[in-house]
Amino acid sequence: MSEQLTPTPGQTVGPFYGYALPFDGGENLVDRTHPQAVRLHGVVYDGNGDPVPDSLLEIWQADEHGRISQEPGSLIRDGYTFTGFGRQAVDNVGAYSFTTVAPGPTEPGAAPFIAMTVFARGLLNRLFTRIYLPEDQEALERDPLLSSVPADRRETLIARREQDGSLRFDVRLQGEAETVFLRYPQHAD
């Protein structure tokens, strides 16, 4: 006898990861003394505009020359090897800060970006987004993914360069100025 089973939702992804997923130095893709070191920081907000204090963020990126690292050992920081991966739990006011390098374009004319994954309370699955660097307007205009996003929402994917040279990127899970989140064909809901 064949029964049709009703799918059930997945378990919320947070805040249960706090004891296992964060690791020492996960927010430091490079040492802050690295000549090209840049601070990527921001706050994760909920739909009411309140900080979400129990989220975890992962970033993946190319190096400053646009090379995607093939190095093993993303969870081990040896001070020399750039793996292009970082993970950090936000603090008690939803703030995060990574020390990394501004990624280079992975091909000539491409818009450099950092891929970000968001885990947070109430989410049944993780969320994916991109953080584009603000400087190369021509590359941003030509980017296929960014061009596919409605013009009034594109700014939610572009970091803001601050006076100190750092990159500011706030994540808004819902509501006004909600960050554009991506869906990958290979990823099941």
From TrEMBL:
Q: Which domain of life is it from?
A: Bacteria
Oxidoreductase in keyword set: yes
Give start and end of each Intradiol ring-cleavage dioxygenases domain: 14-174
Quote one Gene Ontology molecular function term. Answer: ferric iron binding
Task: Quote the CDD domains the UniProt record gives.
Answer: 3_4-PCD_alpha
InterPro entries, from UniProt?
Answer: Intradiol_dOase_C, Intradiol_dOase_core, Intradiol_RC_Dioxygenase, Protocat_dOase_a
Keywords assigned by UniProt, alphabetized? Dioxygenase, Oxidoreductase
Family statement drawn from the similarity comment of this UniProt entry: Belongs to the intradiol ring-cleavage dioxygenase family.
**Name under which the protein is recorded:** Protocatechuate 3,4-dioxygenase alpha chain
Q: Which organism is it from?
A: Kocuria palustris PEL
